[in-house]
Amino acid sequence: MFCDKCGTPLLSGQRFCSRCGKEFAGMMIAGAPTRSRVAEHIRLVGILWLAWGAFEIMSSVVVYILANTLFSRSAGGIDEVPLWMHPFMSGVAVLIFMKAIAGLGAGWGLLQREPWARLLSLVLAFVSLFYPPFGTALGVYTLWVLLPTKSEGEYQAQSRDPAAA
């Protein structure tokens, strides 16, 4: 190990640089394991996917309620609404709900370090890029953490799958 100020070689456990006098705050341990980018960010990505999934469940419920109140002729909705609007809005609500369930599964899987959660999160991240501003931010952050080639190996190393290790 070397001093990051002057480059002088250091001994293990040395608190001050012998050349420039810089103090090293923590105990220096040679060969200490460094945390990877995936390990540092995986918990936050999982929590954000859980939050996004909960938000989408609420959104799907709102869309479904609107479809069955405002856009339904049988519920006394607006008379000028085309007939196709009620089934279309109901279908949109169901699709949003399915994506929300997948987001909750991805978040839970990432927190549990399941081997399938990385792929599911990447697929959902690409889809979420089209939901500005928060979906886009979550998609970009997920892609930044999980997409690089090194990230796959790091995630597999942390995975609960014994065959991956």
Description:
It is built from five helices and no strands. With 165 residues, the chain is mostly helical. α1 (37-69) packs antiparallel against α4 and α3 runs antiparallel to α4. The longest helix has 33 residues, at 37-69. It is elongated, with a radius of gyration of 25 Å. It starts with 36 loop residues before the first helix and ends in a 7-residue tail after the last helix.
Features:
0% strand, elongated, mainly alpha, 5 helices
Strand content: under 5%
> Which structural category do the helix and sheet elements fall into?
mainly alpha
Number of strands: 0
Largest sheet: none
Residue windows where pLDDT falls under 50 for at least 5 positions:
none
**Portion of residues within helices:** 55-70%
Radius of gyration: 25 Å
Query: Average pLDDT value?
Result: 85
- N-to-C SSE string, H for helix and E for strand: HHHHH
- Shape estimate: elongated
Distance between the first and last residues' Cα: 30 Å
Secondary structure tally, helices: 5
Layout of helices and strands:
Layout: H1 37-69, H2 85-111, H3 117-128, H4 134-146, H5 149-158
Helix pairs in contact: 1-2, 1-4, 2-3, 3-4
